[in-house]
Amino acid sequence: MQPLYQIKNEYLQALNELENMEGLTPEMINDSLASINVRFEEKALAVAAYIKNLQSDIERMTAYRMAMAERQDRIDNKIEHLKNYLKHNMQALDKKIIKGIEFDISLRNCNSKVVIDDESRIGQEWYRREIVSKLDKEALRNALQNGQEVKGAHLEQGVSLTIK
User: Fold this and answer.
1) 34 to each of 31, 134, 151, how far by Cα in Å?
2) Which residues pair with 98 in a beta bridge?
3) 23: region left, alpha or beta (phi > 0 left; psi from -120 to 50 alpha)
4) Residues 129, 119: Cα–Cα separation, whole Å
5) Residue-by-residue DSSP string for 52-107
6) pLDDT score at 46
7) If residue 19 lies in a helix (H) or strand (E), which one and from where to where?
């Protein structure tokens, strides 16, 4: 079967040739283009079916990825729990190092971390101020729709394809 763009080109070429012929009524032109139009629509439906198939593949992949992410989270939590379990029991027996054939286990002191007991009691000098500017696209859209000219921006009408 021909690609969709070739059928489109064939249709446009035939339409151009038919419009340049004298004595043809619009009905005669439509009748002449009917077979090309049917092939175009059949091919368009086949492309749409392929798109639907790919979308269903994506849905299955997304579900699988989510299931794997959940499984990874469970395994990560289990690892963290087992590390804490091992650390707690080694600390209880004051074991700093356990040597094994495949690997060694050791307890080490880490860098100190800041623990906030009561944030309301901490002075303002310890706070850092951040200013974030964000473009307000909704206000910009409203201004442009109301005819206001804005340098560096314009409205553009998009077209979307829907396959139901």
Assistant:
1) 5, 53, 48
2) 105
3) left
4) 16
5) HHHHHHHHHHHHHHHHHHHHHHHHHHHHHHHHHHHHHHHHHTT--EEE-SS-EEE-
6) 95
7) helix 4-20
Averages of pLDDT over each 10 residues, the chain, 164 residues: 92 90 85 92 95 97 98 97 95 94 92 90 91 93 92 88 74
d(CA 73, CA 66): 10
The residue assigned the tokens 């012929």 is 21
The answer to whether 21 and 58 have CB atoms below 8 angstroms apart is no
| Residue 97 dihedral angles phi and psi, to the nearest 5° | -140, 135
Strand-pairing partners, residue 97, are 106
Distance CA 18, CA 12 (A): 10
Rounded distance between C-alpha atoms, residue 157 and residue 80, angstroms: 51
Question: What pLDDT was estimated at residue 152?
Answer: 93
Q: Could you tell me the two tokens for 128?
A: 């850092």
